[in-house]
Amino acid sequence: MIELNDVHKYFGQLHVLKGITNHIDQGEVVVIIGPSGSGKSTLLRCINYLEEPTKGEIVVDGIKLNHLATNINRVRQEVGMVFQSFNLFPHMTVIDNITLAPKKVRGLSSAAAADIARELLDKVGLLDKADAYPRQLSGGQQQRVAIARALAMRPKAMLFDEPTSALDPEMIGEVLDVMKNLAKDGMTMVVVTHEMGFAREVGDRVIFIDDGKIVEEGEPEQVFFRPRNERTQAFLSKIL
Amino acid sequence: MAISDWLVIPEILPLMLSGLRVTVVITFFSVLTGLFIGTVVGLARLSNSRLLRALTTAYVEIIRGTPLMVQLFLVYYALPEIGIHLPPMIAGWTAYSINSGAYVSEVVRGGIQSIDRGQMEAARSLGMSWWQAMRYVVLPQAFRNIMPPLGNEFIMLLKDSSLMAVIAVPEVMRYANLMVGRKGGYALPIYVTSGLLYLALTLPLSLVVRRAERGLAKGDRA
Ligand SMILES: Nc1ncnc2c1ncn2[C@@H]1O[C@H](COP(=O)(O)OP(=O)(O)O)[C@@H](O)[C@H]1O
Ligand SMILES: [Mg+2]
To answer: What chain B residue is nearest to A150 in terms of C-alpha separation?
Structure first.
């Protein structure tokens, strides 16, 4: 589903990703952990081509990413992304947030897009908020809308960049529940998060990234409780 | 100077008011065109193309660094020398649109930059093209922020439109000058009247702008 081949990313002189190679299967849920600044966000952004890899190859759903705008937009339609800061469009209602891209990008009619939006709002438990504006919602609700918005494009894979780290503790659960259901429905997911409960319950694999490299990967239980690498051990001892 | 001099006002008022209509119309259309030029130039100044950035930056710097009077004279008196003859109103509108475009482009650029980068990224991550993301997500939010500075630009231009008197555009100052010449005096009541006519427009507009600014500030906090 997602193929990473020796991916490097430089910001000027700063070497952020130092040769990431990995293969993510269809339906797989991969959790990425690692210290702040290690390149986790940059990796996700490269998969969605919000950043252009300096070197290496990324293939998503059989489409090799290159500079062609059509190609980039194609890939982005197939890969949804959820951000730490939600990034809902504040000037639109919840339902308009969700229907905008299906209408403008996929060319759906307003009625068809609204049907999808309501179905997804129901799924994230916010059908009654369809006509609210983002600022009227709590953080947890906003993030659930953001997930619904990404899902409305019917993506083949979803990327989550620390989706719960901007949330008050009491709201983390509701967002994680939505994500767990998504995982159980068979969605291919790459999730940057330090929520161990989530990783253990639905994660197929945990990848530990440090200093732009994959240092260790394996099943959640193994990486969390029997880490082989001493950098993984040092990192886990800090967050656990 | 007798009190009775002020009785000239009712006599001149109809002409002055027709001048005011021209002032408003020409300012309105100049700001409208200026908004169009300013949006295109503002976007170009944020583009990745170095050439586009250089060209539009040069435009903005040249216009902002030269007097409006010079720009107006260039359009009205200099263009005919290369075969382009524009009637006064069109010449005024052209010069003021070009002038306003430069100032508005800075406003637009600031407005776009004030929108969180995450908005563009979220839109792009949904598969929207750069232009779709601009059009549906970034610009609508930016325009809300730039309404107050745009109102200020309108007020500035409204006042500066008085310069067009020198190229015979039939606006307020043009009639005021004519009237003073024809009557051989009455400068005080006539120019006070023109000043008051401008004020009658700019004061309420300033109030509206100030209220919009306050509204925005409040909206940001909510
Ligand atoms: N657009 C950018 N320009 C310059 N440096 C960047 C940019 N984005 C990220 N970086 C740098 O790249 C490094 C990795 O950042 P990031 O991928 O956000 O790490 P993480 O998500 O693991 O905390 C950091 O040192 C960060 O400062
Ligand atoms: Mg990050």
So the answer is: B126
Which helix (H) or strand (E) covers residue B75, if one does? none
CA–CA min distance B126, chain A (Å): 6
Tens digits of residue pLDDT in A72-127: 777 788 899 999 999 999 999 999 999 999 999 999 999 999 999 999 999 999 99
Q: How far apart are CA A3 and CA A62, in angstroms?
A: 9
Other beta carbons less than 10 A from residue A104's beta carbon: 19
The total of other beta-carbon atoms located within 10 Å of residue A216's CB is: 21
Residue with tokens 């090799």: A64
CB A107 within 8 A of CB A180: no
CA distances from B77 to A193, B84, B85, B174 (A): 68, 10, 9, 18
Residue that the structure tokens 């509108």 belong to: B93
Ligand 2: centre distance to CA A182 (Å):
22
Do residues A187 and A180 lie in contact, with contact meaning Cβ atoms separated by under 8 Å? no
- Rounded to two decimals, what is the model's pTM? 0.84
Q: Give the residue among B48, B125, B134, B135 at the shortest CA–CA distance from A73.
A: B125
In 3-state terms, what secondary structure has residue A219? Answer: coil
Q: For each of the domains in chain B, give its residue range(s) and CATH number, in order of start.
A: 3-221 (1.10.3720.10)
